[in-house]
């Protein structure tokens, strides 16, 4: 084994520098161990020191260490990284990898708090994140207060920064990749870049730059650790298309090498178009979620292929125009009474099952208030028409509780444009368990703002006279409300005024 080491210190010990990952294992297994002394290698702290007596021969290096430039980041990877950052909570413990996704991600994490680092690879991007103050390692259980890693990869600046840096602990891969140790860290986020993904959730992995990468076995260890972690999550990130404009989300990746095929352990797949939550979903639901984050121009093809393979229903609706019109900028969060935090975004086709579950939680009275009829069932044919909307004519916002990127729908509000006038009809539903907290009022005010931005001048609604709660929502929402009672139903009219008025 040829191992690069630092010059020995006064006690006759050398540091293994930035490659502790397999250094010790190689030395233990080799019949001949040669130490290559390089004065430009940083002295790293942790399980990195070895005595000169462990080497059979010593040679002096005349070459500079190999450095690697930072990855350039384009707009696609920046948007992808922003989507990843949106589901990383304060206090999370992160495993970084290599590539432009992670180069961009560190920039989007600088406003987070008390992050921890337990990662096989340490890079310039992580150095920046530590220097930003977002990383404290306060809530880690393994090497609390320190970033744990086994290999550093990057520029000369990074190597200089790592030299005798007490914030970074280098350990062998037997500790860094140990699922039992990873799992002791709460909210562990196992994030890895992917080359391709298919509609069943299988992943094709990259081959790393300079032959540095995590193989399927290492990935499995990280994911097992995330499963053991309280609040842990497993994520693959990839752009929707590669540099040749070819789709990265396919009907099948059967012919691609380096596969991670244990799809049941993948919680999320993320592209620049959003987050696909896969955990606990059926094959059909997974396919629908992954189609939604594919490139808009690839979605129609994927829908047709999925129908042909009988993954999606044969009557599955797909509105091509909405693929480009989806309002990703509608992404809000608000904390209501009883410290209930709700996230709001535009509805998606993959919300079909969640919306059906919401419907079946309603009492008969709530169903009648919303639909003006005693509806008992909500079949696929009817619900898919409700969640597959033309955003040029309809705006629908859902409210979710639970972990970011996942969660359960507890509210929905929408307006539908009148085709002959600048009017729109509004409607709301809120889970009975969460009523009285102000959620409907918040949604109503949000719809007013969105309607104004889209040139709507008047909102209308039909409300049963006995539905006192919904009448209060309109009263609290602000503005002038005109009500006309006809056969037990109030017809409400709300002028919105000029755009920009609040």
CATH-level-4 superfamily name of the largest domain: Glutaconate Coenzyme A-transferase
CATH architecture of the largest domain: 3-Layer(aba) Sandwich
Report low-confidence residues grouped into runs of 5 or more.
none
The description of the largest β-sheet is:
9 strands, mixed
Q: Mean of residue pLDDT?
A: 90
- Overall SS class: alpha/beta
Measured as a percent range, the helix fraction is 25-40%
Characterise this structure:
The structure is a single chain. The chain folds into three domains: 2-60, no CATH class; 75-295, Glutaconate Coenzyme A-transferase; 331-495, Gcn5-related N-acetyltransferase (GNAT) (Aminopeptidase), CATH 3.40.630. Strands 7, 8, 13, 14, 15, 16, 17, 18 and 19 form a nine-stranded mixed β-sheet that branches. It has an eight-stranded mixed β-sheet with strand order 20-21-22-23-24-25-27-26, sandwiched between helices. Strands 1-3-6 form a three-stranded parallel β-sheet, covered by helices on one side. The protein has 502 residues and is an alpha/beta fold. The protein contains 16 helices and 27 strands.
Walk me through the topology.
Elements lengths: L1 E4 L7 E3 L7 H7 L4 E4 L7 E2 L2 E3 L5 E4 L14 H11 L7 E3 L4 H9 L7 E2 L3 E2 L1 H9 L14 E3 L1 E2 L3 H7 L5 E3 L2 H4 L2 H4 L5 E11 L4 E3 L10 H13 L4 E5 L11 E2 L8 E2 L7 E4 L2 E4 L5 H10 L3 H13 L11 H6 L5 E6 L3 E7 L5 H10 L2 H8 L8 H8 L6 E8 L6 E10 L5 E8 L8 H15 L4 E7 L3 H9 L5 E5 L2 E7 L7
Parallel strand pairs: 1-3, 3-6, 4-12, 7-8, 7-13, 9-11, 10-12, 13-15, 13-16, 15-18, 24-25
Antiparallel strand pairs: 2-5, 13-14, 14-17, 18-19, 20-21, 21-22, 22-23, 23-24, 25-27, 26-27
Helix pairs in contact: 2-3, 3-4, 9-10
């Amino acid at each position: 084994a040829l191992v690069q080491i630092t010059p020995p210190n006064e006690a006759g010990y050398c540091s293994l520098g930035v490659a502790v990952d397999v250094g010790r294992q190689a030395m233990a297994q080799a019949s001949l161990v040669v130490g290559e002394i390089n004065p430009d290698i940083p002295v790293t702290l942790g399980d990195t020191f070895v005595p000169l007596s462990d080497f059979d021969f010593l040679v002096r290096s005349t070459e500079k260490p190999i450095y690697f430039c930072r990855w350039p980041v384009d707009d696609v990877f920046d948007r992808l990284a922003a989507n990843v950052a949106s589901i990383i909570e304060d206090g999370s413990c992160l495993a970084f990898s290599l590539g432009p996704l992670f180069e961009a991600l560190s920039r989007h994490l600088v406003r987070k708090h008390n992050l921890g680092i337990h990662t096989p690879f340490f890079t310039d991007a992580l150095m920046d994140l530590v220097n930003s103050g977002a990383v404290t390692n306060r809530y880690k259980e393994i090497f609390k207060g320190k970033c744990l890693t086994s290999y550093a990869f990057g520029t000369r600046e990074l190597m200089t920064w790592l030299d005798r840096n007490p914030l970074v602990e280098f350990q062998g891969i037997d500790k860094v990749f140990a699922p039992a140790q990873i799992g002791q860290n709460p909210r562990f986020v196992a994030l890895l870049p992917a080359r391709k993904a298919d509609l069943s959730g299988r992943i094709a992995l990259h081959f790393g730059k300079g032959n540095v990468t995590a193989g399927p076995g290492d990935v499995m260890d990280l994911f097992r650790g995330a499963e053991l972690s309280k609040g842990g999550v497993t994520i693959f990130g990839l752009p929707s298309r590669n540099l040749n404009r070819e789709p990265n989300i396919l009907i099948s990746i059967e012919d691609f090498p380096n596969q991670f095929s244990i799809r049941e352990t993948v919680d999320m797949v993320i592209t620049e178009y959003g987050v696909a939550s896969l955990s606990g979903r059926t094959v059909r639901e997974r396919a629908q979620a992954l189609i939604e984050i594919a490139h808009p121009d690839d979605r129609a093809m994927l829908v047709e292929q999925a129908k042909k393979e009988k993954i999606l229903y044969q009557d599955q609706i797909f509105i091509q125009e909405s693929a480009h019109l989806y309002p990703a900028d509608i992404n809000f969060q608000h904390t209501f009474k009883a410290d209930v935090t709700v996230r709001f975004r535009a509805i998606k086709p993959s919300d079909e099952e969640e919306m059906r579950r919401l419907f079946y939680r309603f009492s008969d009275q709530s169903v009648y208030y919303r639909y003006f009829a005693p509806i008992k069932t909500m079949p696929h044919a009817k619900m898919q028409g409700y969640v597959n909307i033309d955003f040029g004519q309809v705006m629908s916002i859902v409210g979710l509780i639970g972990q970011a990127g996942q969660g359960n729908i507890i509210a929905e509000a929408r307006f539908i444009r009148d085709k002959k006038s600048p009017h729109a009809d509004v409607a709301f539903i809120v889970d009975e368990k969460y009523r009285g907290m102000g959620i409907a009022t918040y949604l109503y005010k949000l719809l007013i703002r969105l309607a104004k931005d889209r040139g709507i001048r008047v909102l209308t609604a039909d409300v049963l006279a006995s539905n006192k709660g919904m009448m209060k929502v309109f009263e609290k929402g602000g503005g002038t409300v005109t009500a006309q009672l006809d056969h037990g139903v109030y017809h409400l009219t709300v002028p919105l005024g000029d755009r920009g008025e609040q």
